[in-house]
Design brief:
Elements lengths: L12 H4 L14 E3 L1 H14 L5 E7 L10 E7 L35 H5 L2 E3 L6 E3 L4 H5 L10 H13 L8 E5 L15 E4 L3
Antiparallel strand pairs: 1-3, 2-3, 2-6, 4-5, 6-7
Length: 198
């Protein structure tokens, strides 16, 4: 039976845990923030008295010195823990809970497109989309990524794909965060830009 996506009771995992991407050497990534979202997210955080750290994520072309991109096409908001986990907007200190019983997002109506797209993720090898297999709802439910129940999530992902389009002929830079679990620190690249070899 196909069902509309909704969070599983008491789950906030997608707001807590971050991944190493594209590999452990680059450190954990933060929530993808489009350039048009960056100043809005920073302003909302400032008004709420919440400290956020937004750094580059992807860039294109080479700058004049050749040590970084000419243009940044995506940023990332880092988690507030030293290991890179835990969204700064997740209200874990509050007794207030979201409708599904998990921790409440303090900017839910203003959340970034990446959060709006979840649990739909890009399938780089196909025109179709995939569902995040770590999402508890997706594990427990029979869902199809073409289901009308995911229309809002698919639209948010489409917006991201349009804004973060990469031409195969352009140099692509990825920002290494050097953030993650202590046991992995010896594997990290230094924080900063790394030119991708495609």
């Amino acid at each position: 039976m196909l069902r509309k996506f909704s969070c599983v009771s008491d789950c906030s995992d997608c707001c807590i845990y971050r991944d190493y991407y594209p590999s452990i050497e680059y450190g954990k990534i933060g929530v993808l923030i489009l350039p048009e979202e960056k100043s809005r997210i920073e302003e909302v955080a400032w008004k709420m008295g919440i400290e956020v750290k937004i750094i580059p994520r992807l860039g294109l072309g080479k700058n004049r010195k050749g040590n970084g991109p000419k243009k940044i096409i995506a940023y990332q908001m880092l988690g507030k823990n030293l290991d890179g986990n835990l969204c700064p907007f997740l209200g874990i200190e509050s007794s207030e809970r979201s409708p599904h019983g998990g921790f409440k997002c303090s900017i839910y109506k203003q959340r970034p497109f990446a959060c709006r797209a979840y649990p739909v993720i890009d399938n780089e090898n196909s025109k179709s989309v995939l569902l995040d297999n770590r999402c508890l709802f997706c594990k427990k439910s029979s869902m199809d990524a073409d289901n009308d129940g995911l229309q809002g999530e698919i639209e948010a992902l489409t917006k991201i794909k349009v804004e973060v389009h990469v031409d195969k002929k352009t140099e692509v830079w990825r920002y290494a965060t050097a953030i993650g679990d202590n046991k992995d620190k010896t594997k990290f690249l230094p924080q900063g830009w790394v030119l991708q070899i495609i």
